[in-house]
């Protein structure tokens, strides 16, 4: 019973988050459509680049624009309160030169801040005209009822001529989030659609232009294209995939379970021989977890200018908190977090950058921000001991076992392939024998072996083509002589 209740709460939370993101995205699309309709082309171009949306891929529906929505809202407000809504107000100063700081919006819409059809507000009959007096009385009676049903609300709206009464449930979802009809969780959004329609937040407000430039540099490392690597695409590594889910996926899905001593890990290290799938696991995290994914390399946070490296590290973690839930992936982390020495052989700038990175990771452990650091290394013994302590969970990505090697051979050299002409090409391979004799091979080694095997018939084809070309060119050469 408790498990089903937790799953239901998780599904409801995910559904509300999806609805909120869809509202933000749809509103941005309507804004850009409105600006484009009135000739603000440069503004639309800049806005598309900042929010990662394109009117070429998605646009406003037919007969739907901001003016129509505003007109319907003014009509509804006038019917409900008997006066026009106040949409804008005058500012105190004559001219505003200060940059407005972005306000932090709540993740969910508060139903107390929105009007409700079940309120006890009264309508002024004189302001609506004598022709609608009877309709006003029916509206007051409907509003004074205890909890009106969806049907009664549709009748009230139909009496006042508001179109679209058949879809009144969808129209009232944003106004009555606690309606009697329970919301149906939307279908899971495909990863490709998620990345194409992901709404990117604008840069946070920084006082200095230098920090804004550094933030723009880090923002370019956010994954905006789908890596298209799923958990089932990774052969083997079942234990590693389970631990990564425990560290990244489940804390976001079941936050009530990860409290106290079970608080989620803030750092995870993937270590092992090269070519075993560490970077592939990171791509699966970017595809499946649907968090803001920062793909950081040494060139992203190392600068030749004094003081810029530690500033880049600080801005990186600030942006990760700003875009939370987020994941920071640092590949080959030993290149930037090697052992610190006291013999003076290490550069001062490198020590400052390492110290700043350790301080920022300590800040992650002391806060409840949904920011996760994922690191990969082939040389874990070269990492600084302080960094190893902050990477709480360390997972060995070992060489694939026999079952995993069997799956890899079947993926790279499938038993049956259909070419472009529709011909079915069948190959008889002993996959069990191939997996047995490839003991000690990494996933990358197996891919190279399969590639070399696939090149052999292609080489024979090239030899036949060259022989045919030589045979055709020989008579022409003799006649010329």
UniProtKB/TrEMBL annotation:
Coiled-coil parts of chain: none
Q: Where are the transmembrane segments?
A: none
- Annotated ATP binding sites: 272-279
Q: Where in the cell is it found?
A: Cytoplasm, Cytoskeleton, Spindle pole; Cytoplasm, Cytoskeleton; Cytoplasm; Cytoplasm, Cytoskeleton, Spindle
The EC number of this protein is: 5.6.1.1
Primary localization:
cytoplasm
Keywords, A to Z, come to:
ATP-binding, Cytoplasm, Cytoskeleton, Isomerase, Microtubule, Nucleotide-binding
**Which residue numbers delimit the AAA+ ATPase domain?**
264-401
The record lists the catalysed reaction(s) as:
n ATP + n H2O + a microtubule = n ADP + n phosphate + (n+1) alpha/beta tubulin heterodimers
Q: Where is the composition biased (Polar residues)?
A: 107-124
Output one GO BP term.
Answer: microtubule severing
Q: Which GO terms describe its cellular component?
A: cytoplasm; microtubule; spindle pole
Question: Which Pfam families does this chain map to?
Answer: AAA, AAA_lid_3
User: Region labeled Disordered — which residues?
Assistant: 100-131
MF-aspect GO terms: ATP binding; ATP hydrolysis activity; microtubule binding; microtubule severing ATPase activity
What is the purpose of this protein? Severs microtubules in vitro in an ATP-dependent manner. This activity may promote rapid reorganization of cellular microtubule arrays.
Report the sequence similarity comment from the record. Belongs to the AAA ATPase family. Katanin p60 subunit A1 subfamily. A-like 2 sub-subfamily.
**Name under which the protein is recorded:** Katanin p60 ATPase-containing subunit A-like 2
Q: What is the source species?
A: Physocladia obscura
- Identify the coding gene: KATNAL2
């Amino acid at each position: 019973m408790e498990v089903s209740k937790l799953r239901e709460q998780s599904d409801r939370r995910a559904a509300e988050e999806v609805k909120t993101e869809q509202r933000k995205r749809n509103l941005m699309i309507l804004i850009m459509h409105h600006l484009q309709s009135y000739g603000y082309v440069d503004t639309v171009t800049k806005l598309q680049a900042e929010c990662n949306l394109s009117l070429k891929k998605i646009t406003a529906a037919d007969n739907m624009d901001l003016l129509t929505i505003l007109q319907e809202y003014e009509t509804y407000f006038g019917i409900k309160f008997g006066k026009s809504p106040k949409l804008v107000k005058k500012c105190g100063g004559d001219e505003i030169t200060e940059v407005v700081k972005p306000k932090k919006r709540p993740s969910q819409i508060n139903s107390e801040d929105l009007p409700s059809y079940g309120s006890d507000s009264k309508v002024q009959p004189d302001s609506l005209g004598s022709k609608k007096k009877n309709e006003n009385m029916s509206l007051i009676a409907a509003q004074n009822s205890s909890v009106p049903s969806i049907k009664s609300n549709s009748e009230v709206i139909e009496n006042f001529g508001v179109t679209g009464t058949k879809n009144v449930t969808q129209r009232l979802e944003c106004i009555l989030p606690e309606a009697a009809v329970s919301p149906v969780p939307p279908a899971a959004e495909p990863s490709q659609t998620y990345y194409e329609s992901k709404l990117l937040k604008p840069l946070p407000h920084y006082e200095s232009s230098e920090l804004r430039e550094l933030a723009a540099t880090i923002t370019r490392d956010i994954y905006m294209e789908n890596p298209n690597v799923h958990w089932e695409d990774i052969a083997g590594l079942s234990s590693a995939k389970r631990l990564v889910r425990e560290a990244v996926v489940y804390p976001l899905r079941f936050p009530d379970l990860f409290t106290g001593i079970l608080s989620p890990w803030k750092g995870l290290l993937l270590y092992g021989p090269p070519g075993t799938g560490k970077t592939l696991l990171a791509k699966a995290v970017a595809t499946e977890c649907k968090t803001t994914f920062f793909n950081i390399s040494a060139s992203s946070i190392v600068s030749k200018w004094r003081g810029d490296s530690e500033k880049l590290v600080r801005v990186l973690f600030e942006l990760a908190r700003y875009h939370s839930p987020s994941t920071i992936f640092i590949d080959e982390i030993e290149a930037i977090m090697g052992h610190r020495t006291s013999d003076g052989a290490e550069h001062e700038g490198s020590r400052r950058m390492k110290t700043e990175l350790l301080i920022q990771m300590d800040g992650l452990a002391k806060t409840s921000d949904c920011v996760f650091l994922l690191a990969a290394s082939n040389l874990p013994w070269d990492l600084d001991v302080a960094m190893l302590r902050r990477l709480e969970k360390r997972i060995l990505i070992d060489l694939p076992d026999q079952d995993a090697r069997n799956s890899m051979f079947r993926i790279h050299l499938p038993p049956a392939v259909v070419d472009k002409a529709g011909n079915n090409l069948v190959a008889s391979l002993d996959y069990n024998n191939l997996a047995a004799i490839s003991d000690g091979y990494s996933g990358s080694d197996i891919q190279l072996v399969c590639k070399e095997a696939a090149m052999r018939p292609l080489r024979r084809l090239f030899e036949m083509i060259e022989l045919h070309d030589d045979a055709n060119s020989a008579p022409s050469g003799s006649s010329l002589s």
